[in-house]
Amino acid sequence: MIRSKAGVPRRAGPRGKHLTFGRTRAGARRRQRLRRLLALGLPTAWGAVAITYKLACPLAQQNGLGARIATCAVFFAVGTGLILHVRRGLLRELRQIRRVAGAAQGVLLRPLPPSVDGLNVAAAQVSADRGASVGGDLYEVIGTEHGVRVVMGDVRGHGLAAIGTVAAVLGSFREAVHDEPELPGVLRRLERAMARHLRERAKAGHPSSGPSGPDPDSPVAEEFVTVLLLEIGRDGEMRALNCGHPWPYLLRGGGGGAGGGDRVEHLGFGDPLPPLGAFPLPTELPVVRCGPLLPGEALFLYTDGVEDARDSQGRFFPLPAALTEATRTHPTAPQEVLGTVFTQLLAHADGFPTDDVALLVVANGRTQVQTAHREQLATPL
Questions:
Q1: Could you tell me if 319 and 200 lie in one domain?
Q2: Torsion region of 107: left, alpha or beta (phi above 0 gives left; psi -120 to 50 gives alpha)
Q3: Average predicted confidence (pLDDT) for the chain
Q4: How far apart are CA 35 and CA 29, in angstroms?
Q5: Looking at the DSSP assignment, which residues form a beta bridge with residue 136?
Q6: Is the same domain home to 31 and 171?
């Protein structure tokens, strides 16, 4: 592009961009230096007040009791002001660090949309580490051309130490669900991603370890993640692969007796596959047919930190009873069901569970489903 100034044509090229960028950086450095000077201004002023009082004030030169009390009061005020100034600066830095950490963790375990391809979704989680918004639990719901695919997982351990494994599994899942037409292909991708992650961690901790895998004596060799993969087709049919994770609960919106027990059904379909990272997956990965998710029905997925939560007397959290109560008040509205169960869980655990907790509710908000009857028994594909 040609620009002209004072009748002389001038070409704007990369040099102009570099000059602009340099001016911007110089201005930022000047502003940073100014902020530092302002930050030092108050302590300098307090120090000047103390020195001036000690050297120039006649009262500070006297040895009487009143003079000593006045001197102590002045220096106490100066010290208090300095402490408050330092505290204010530390709190400002802490807020900035929390904002950065929250943004990074929000990208890792991003908020779910309220609806995915006609399915209403709600999720909540809490980390066992105070101050952390993400721990060792993971979940994701993605609409694809193959159907809506859901993952729920739980990394061995909890808190910030498990975030690396969560990132490896979630990153692989978000790519594989679009590329792989069948669930076994998605699970194979997750297994390879988990194996690469463990090898990299083993090399970081033990540089002598080779490409064959982690050292059996390394703590990395004991790391694993339980995973539940779920696919909900356009007709509502559900298919699943379970690697050591708790099976979900099915919530029905209508019917139900006085106790509401038949509104809540635990879906259990035999022995699950081994968790990822603990043992190699078998050659054959039989997909389990879980029947259709009809309109007005919902799935409640969770990690084992929910059922393992204990109260002050050591009693476990009664999840089926909490779900029954939630469906009696709010049949299958995801946000309401989630809020009711989560509130009861926190009250049961005195406000802070000892393990990471994740809850996910997926409700069928579609108006048409091709399948009219639910299969009574799960059969492998």
A1: yes
A2: alpha
A3: 77
A4: 10
A5: none
A6: no
